Amino acid sequence: MLTLTNITKSWGQGDARQQVLRGIDFKLAAGQSCALTGESGSGKSTLLHLAAGLDDAESGTIILDGQDVTALNDAGRAALRRTTVGVIFQQFNLIPSLNVAANIAFQARLANRADPAWADALARRLGLSEHLRKYPEQLSGGQQQRVAIGRTLAARPKLILADEPTGNLDEDTGTRVLDLMLELVRETGTTLLMVTHSGRLADLLDRRAHLERGRITP
Fold it and tell me: pTM of the predicted model, to two decimals?
């Protein structure tokens, strides 16, 4: 599903230039879940953004579901994010002017995959059925993150890239939300790459890859 080959990335200019990724080689099979761990500033979020086509690698290739992400223009990458890959951010990134039901359906509508029955089933499984008419500001952090997860799954992506999806939640709420997400991911056969600082949460996934000094160790 996802193959990164010799990916490099730097930030800054001149003497302030810092090499973040130093020839990343990584593969993730379809239907597999993988935790990406590493110290703060090790480049975990950068790698996720490159895989999603939200940023450009300096060198190397990224193949996502048979498509070379590094060869696509902005429009091609945006289309890939609509149809093939879903991104779950730590900050939730819900649309304030839309209620819960509309937020969940938003990504699926962009992908022309609107399925009210599937959206209702997700809302029920995520404990959101009683909150569908509420707006993001009326929800707790845990509820907002469940909406973000529902929005991503509603579009039926082949790959989910999750950047510290429970990082803004307390430990108990984060564990419950992650358990729900993993249950739904496994039931739907979706591939998952999740950035986390928590070894305990990483152990819940199929495998772990550790990012250190710009390289991935199995």
Answer: 0.89
